[in-house]
Amino acid sequence: MTSKRIFIAMTAFAASALAFVPAHAAGQIKGWWTNQTQDYDFGVEHVDGALSEKSAFIKNTASAPNGYGTLSQGISAEQYRGKHVRLSAMLKSKDADGVQLFLRMDGPEEKVLEFRNMGDTPVKGTTDWKRYDIVLDVPQQAQAISYGYYLLGKGEAWADSFKIEVVGNDVPVSAPESDLPDKPVNGDFEQ
Description:
globular
């Protein structure tokens, strides 16, 4: 799946809560939501090298997984409106096809106002703990901020130390992922 299609899929799932269930409802992780899929397992466990005693995991359980496993959380945007925010978390992976953080700003009627993931730089293969960041401006009309991480395809992924913080404007906003050209191409069809 291309990064562009991942973005479209993530935006579609992110805009609808129909496919998500509270992770704590299944005795998993208080305050977090997972997508309904039988191809992934979710939970917490001790992982050496993590900053906390326990870390959240997403593990592929199918030989040919369909889609992705997501662990997410949403908060009110009220105290962050008009501010520059950074989502940071520590990620670790094992034999992963792709692991990504995501950060989304929702407006009225769950309209997606801003969305970024790590589509251009997913965590792949087997990696040790490393911090990753996404920075966005929170629009004045934002009502909710959703964030989390997901495992696309096979493998295992762990996350720890999620944090959302207001940062100065000197911290650059994460570049949007785009396969679009900067200007029109071949408008006269001569090429």
